[in-house]
Amino acid sequence: MAIPWDKFTVKAQEGVQRGSTLASEHGNPELMPVHLLAALLEDREGIVPPVLEKIGIGAQAVLRDAYQEIERLPKVSGGDAFQPTLSQSVNQVLERAFKEADNFKDEYVSTEHLLLAITQVTMRF
């Protein structure tokens, strides 16, 4: 699926870009949902940390756990800086985020849609 980046809010675009940067900084060859989650949690001006706090989930604790999970991911070393590829699970997250935006009758995918999609794709009930 070709990703229509123009259908993402600026904050959502920044979140995906920051997730990619996190993957690269940690030597992870693929952008994973945990990178996106960490990026959304890092944004103190974004909606994700207050939403989690509102429902009784400590955003800082989740961010710390996300970083620990990132450290466990496969790494590549040597060579120049690289651009991580989108993992299959991130593609699923992005597809699900579009469905969430559609469910809410929103024209653009926002960070809230990404958060909902991350929970749905990564959580197995």
Descriptive report:
By secondary structure, the protein is mostly helical. 60% of the residues lie in helices and 3% in strands. The chain is built from 6 helices and 2 strands. Strands 1-2 form a two-stranded parallel sheet. The radius of gyration is 14 Å and the shape is globular.
Question: How many β strands by DSSP?
Answer: 2
Helix fraction bin? 55-70%
Q: What does the overall shape look like?
A: globular
Strand order of the largest sheet: 1-2
SSE string, helices as H and strands as E: HEHHHEHH
- Classified by CATH, the class is Mainly Alpha
- Tell me the number of helical segments per DSSP (H or I, 4 or more residues long): 6
The fourth-level CATH homologous superfamily is: Clp, N-terminal domain
Share of β-strand residues: under 5%
The average pLDDT is 94
